[in-house]
Backbone:
């Protein structure tokens, strides 16, 4: 199971990377493995406002549906539209082609985020 | 896939019927119908002899798994035996051939049966009134939530939120959302039960109700339900009980006595009528005094002269949920089941359902993990975590059970149990059947240790092996070749 050390993590199993005031969000390798075959993702639209710790979408796998939680408050700048036709990208490459949204950062409480090590401790 | 479809078997010109010669003058169809209504080409209907049709469907039916074929331990689904006398009686011409538009005086027996069934459900549940209209459990939930909405509107504060415990049936949040409410999740306590402290923090003036399943989806009795009801009532909110698991409570506890304001019954679970594709279902809804005025119209009433009639004069009713009076044939079966058991018999039903679930819980407790290990009621929930550490997931265990000749239990639900296996044997299984099932589960656990690949590649003996469920959901294609007019 991959937990890249250059990313940060939420307790709800999203990964977070921050670059030039833009937060990229996806779900972790562990999360995609637990969900199993992903069949559908519902994401916000570009320009939508998202709130820290609030749901920004849903992810549907064969066995269950889960909510996706935003690590930051801000405006959605980009959405991974490839996921609409190929949600399996999240299973195949959760940290790469399976990214979900990019948020123009308003506020983010970084204390809420976990390091790779802390995230690993949480799931093991 | 090995099985051919009925279209694959079709041969042009083959037929299973000989129509008699036409004994009236034939009219060309284009003189009878306007041009726009005429087909441009013939519909592609399969052409087969009678024997081929029979063989095709008999063959398909032998591939099906059903409760008449073997144990069906789906948790929270109560797949009990459907007594054959139910079927015989529901087909009596007086029931089976009734016309829905028949006048009241011609269907007194049917109305009387409905009146009695509603009365029986009221007595079993302790609710004030029951409507038999909803066609299934989820529609009963929707009816209940629409009544909750109507009640609060009449009180002058429509309220926007409904509290849902995190082990709720998935239909609960869906039903309340369709009724226009916002779900608020209540996390269960360490013991898997309602956490009153957390509930206290969620209840406010905007909470319309809480929707609780009792016994819970962990198969546990919500012992604090009366306290929760008081907390909700003090804040002006209502308590909804999902009655899907009522099979554990018959003659033992009545939702109305526990403070429940509104609930639904699944006649196709507790009261032995057919399920799902074998349905249709019936999900009567029961209410306490506060919600009585909002029950769907019409209700079946009994006049002073002893005759039955339909009462449409219910100005506050939420409206109709079903054409005519609900799925009447299902009501006949449930009525018969209740009447044949009587009060003592129904109590025994629940006792045996609980005994059977606890028997399975004990026999498998050293083999599969039990995250919540107290006594259960009608169902028990294991975790496949121990097997997962060996590379065998709950999905694999479920698939392997098919090779042993059993239907799989409910898996990955409730969501609060990791790798959940939710097993409900029901009261109608014998000790021998329970033992055979437990032995299969034990054998699979041994395989997970010794030969995990056998389990992860299961099923090996079914007509079709492991399906690609992801692909099936992602690339849904249920196209049927039927030519439409104008094609």
Residues:
């Amino acid at each position: 199971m991959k937990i890249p050390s250059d990313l940060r993590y939420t307790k709800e199993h999203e990964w977070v990377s921050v670059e030039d005031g833009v937060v990229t969000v996806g779900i972790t390798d562990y999360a995609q493995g637990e969900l199993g075959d992903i069949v559908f993702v519902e994401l916000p639209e570009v320009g939508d406002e998202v709130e820290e710790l609030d749901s920004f979408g849903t992810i549907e796998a064969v066995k269950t549906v889960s909510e996706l939680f935003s690590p930051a408050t801000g405006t959605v700048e980009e959405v991974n539209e490839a996921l609409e036709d190929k949600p399996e990208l999240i299973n195949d490459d959760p940290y790469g082609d399976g990214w979900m949204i990019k948020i123009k950062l308003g506020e983010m409480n970084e204390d809420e985020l976990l390091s790779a090590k802390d995230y690993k401790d949480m799931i093991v | 896939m090995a099985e051919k479809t009925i279209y694959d078997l079709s041969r042009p010109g083959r037929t299973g019927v000989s129509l008699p010669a036409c004994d009236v003058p034939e009219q060309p169809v284009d003189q009878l119908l306007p041009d726009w209504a005429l087909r441009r080409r013939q519909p592609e209907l399969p052409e087969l002899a009678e024997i081929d049709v029979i063989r095709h469907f008999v063959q398909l039916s032998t591939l099906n798994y059903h409760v008449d074929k073997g144990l069906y331990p789906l948790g929270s689904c109560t797949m009990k035996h459907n007594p054959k006398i139910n079927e015989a009686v529901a087909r009596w011409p007086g029931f089976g051939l009734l016309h829905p538009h028949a006048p009241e005086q011609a269907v007194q027996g049917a109305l009387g049966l409905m009146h009695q069934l509603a009365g029986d459900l009221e007595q079993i549940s302790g609710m004030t009134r029951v409507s038999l209209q909803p066609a299934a459990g989820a529609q009963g939930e929707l009816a209940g939530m629409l009544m909750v909405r109507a009640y609060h509107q009449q009180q002058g504060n429509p309220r926007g939120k409904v509290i849902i415990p995190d082990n709720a049936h998935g239909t609960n949040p869906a039903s309340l959302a369709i009724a226009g409410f916002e779900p608020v999740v209540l996390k269960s306590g360490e013991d898997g039960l309602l956490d009153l402290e957390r509930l206290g923090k969620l209840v406010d003036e905007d909470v319309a109700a809480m929707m609780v399943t009792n016994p819970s989806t962990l198969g546990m009795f919500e012992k604090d339900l009366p306290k929760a009801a008081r907390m909700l009532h003090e804040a002006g909110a209502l308590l909804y009980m999902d009655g899907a698991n009522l099979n554990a409570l018959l003659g033992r506890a009545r939702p109305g006595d526990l403070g429940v304001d509104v609930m639904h019954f699944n006649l196709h679970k507790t009261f032995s009528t057919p399920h799902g594709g074998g349905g249709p279902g019936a999900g009567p809804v029961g209410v306490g005094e506060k919600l009585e005025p909002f029950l769907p119209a019409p209700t079946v009433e009994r006049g002073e002269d002893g005759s039955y009639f339909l009462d449409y004069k219910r100005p506050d009713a939420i409206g109709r949920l079903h054409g005519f009076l609900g799925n009447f044939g299902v009501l006949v079966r449930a009525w018969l089941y209740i009447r044949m058991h009587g009060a003592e018999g129904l109590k025994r039903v629940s006792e045996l359902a609980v005994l059977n679930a606890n028997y399975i819980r004990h026999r498998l407790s050293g083999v599969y993990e039990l995250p919540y290990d107290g006594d259960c009621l009608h169902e028990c929930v294991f975790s496949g975590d121990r097997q997962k550490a060996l590379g065998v997931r709950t999905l694999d265990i479920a698939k392997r059970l098919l090779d042993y000749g059993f239907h799989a239990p409910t898996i990955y639900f409730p969501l609060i149990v990791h790798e959940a296996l939710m097993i409900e044997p029901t009261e109608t299984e014998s000790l021998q059947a329970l033992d055979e099932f437990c032995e299969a589960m034990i054998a699979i656990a041994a395989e997970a240790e010794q030969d995990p690949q056998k389990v992860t590649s299961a099923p090996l003996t079914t007509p079709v092996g492991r399906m690609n469920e992801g692909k099936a959901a992602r690339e849904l294609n249920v196209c049927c070749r039927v030519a439409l007019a104008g094609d």
Summary: The longest helix of chain A spans residues 116-123. Chain A has one domain: 8-108.
